[in-house]
Amino acid sequence: MTSTETTLSGTPDALPAAGDRRRWFALAIVMTAAFMDLVDVTIVNIAIPSIRQDAGASVSQIQWITAGYALAFAAGLITGGRLGDIHGRKRLFLVGIGGFTLASALCGFAANPEMLVASRILQGGMAAMMVPQVLSIVHATFPAHERGKVFGLFGAIVGLGAVSGPLLGALLTEWNLFGLEWRPIFLINLPVGIAGLVLGSRFITESKAPRALKLDLVGVGLVVVGLLLLLYPLTRGEELDWPLWGYVSMAGAPLVFAALVAYEKRKGARDGSPLVELSLFKVKSFAAGIAVQTVFGVGLGIFFLVWTLYMQTGLGWSPLRAGLTGVPFSIAVSTAAGLSVQQLVPRFGRKVLQAGALLMAVGVLLYLWEAERYGMGISSWQMALPLVVMGVGMGLIVAPLTDAVLSEVPREHAGSASGLINTVQQMGNALGLGLVSVVFFGVIGDDLRPAQVGPAFVDAFQHALGWVAAVMGVIFLLMFALPKRPAQHVEGAEAGAELPVAEEKAPELV
Questions:
Q1: Tell me: the pLDDT tens digits for 428-481?
Q2: Helix 414-439 to helix 380-406 angle, to the nearest 10 degrees?
Q3: Cβ-count burial of 501 within 10 angstroms (0-12 exposed, 13-18 middle, 19+ buried)?
Q4: Would you say 117 and 68 are in contact if contact means Cβ atoms under 8 Å apart?
Q5: Separation CA 418–CA 131 (nearest Å)
Q6: Cα 294–Cα 370–Cα 157 angle in degrees, nearest 5
Q7: Does residue 72 have a pLDDT over 90?
Q8: Is the dihedral of CA 121, 126, 129, 131 positive or negative?
Q9: What is the DSSP letter of 271?
Q10: How far apart are CA 73 and CA 77, in angstroms?
């Protein structure tokens, strides 16, 4: 038995000692994996026009390169979280990061758009094994009074990933290394993934749920079927001219989810091992946070894809110029995220998140006004102000929201909870990507002449921004259901007190 595989008791003292530096090494490793996943999403967005031109991908294939990843990610996240609870979060993390690295290689060497789409779906599935373990490992390793600092770091990583992805994607695409065009945006994951695999096996401490759980295969099937019934028609609806079967499919999705809830209730009563821990929704902060995460994902899914198409196809900018234009936004996200959890939320609570939603809405409306006023002649510096306002708003939401959602979750359900958080955010993101067909491509005419493409994309971007602003308004209203302050701040975070509900059972580390 190695030093990182020591068996610990199920008491609150089972957490790693405060002087144990291994947990900070482990944190750095899992944060690097989360960073790699975030970069991979944003790096692909900035390279989409180049992929479309070099690989000859159609509009629908371009949508599938992004939405296929989101679909596989959303469909597998709950399962990934539960598998971590059952077989060990370290083990699933290593499987996920290894598979993600392999899938990145397949993306980089894809021979045609079809292979790229298939490899992206595999990449999303592997990310679904890896990403839920990040929050689970953090939640199971760090006591409540330290999690605010950790989630603040997580928010900063989100911002860093947001700024690094577009810039890195732009540079790699512009440099055309070894004549590989856009392919290095995927191949860059290989050294990072290999390093994470090697270091993770050494420094991450294994943790499982305290009870022996079984994988709920029926629940897995219902989740996958329900998500596909909802998201597949949304993704392909515009391309296929919205056929009747698409509406029938989307109408069937709520019925499948209702069957899932009924089955999970019976499963939980029978053997206590459901895929979705429905008792989590009795925790007000968790239920409200899940609703906010879903709608927030919709807004982000719409904005980032149409923003890339607006700058590169509408305005005709190079990938590098588009990437540099996003730097003020990403710096603002990273800075605000780092400040929000550690300094603002303990003092102002829920108001910080609501201020973030309002700021994002103001920034979007300001961007809409500038895009309409300056049209095709808009410059990067003119976009800076609305992007900074939007970035500050997003930073005030991302880190505190994760903290609020997980603050009252019992530690033995950390895997299930983090899987649900990521699932609903990705489901919202995929919904947003599907809605791009309606709010963006749906207002662009067919058979445009070359001179008409730019103005048409600019007008469509303005139309999409109106939708994003409306989504931010909905998020602001939903946030009234969040607790006024995250539980650890109420329960005495400054004194290092733990959450009673989170200490019912500590994880069994084996």
A1: 887 887 788 778 887 887 677 878 888 999 999 999 999 999 999 999 998 887
A2: 150
A3: middle
A4: yes
A5: 9
A6: 40
A7: no
A8: negative
A9: H
A10: 6
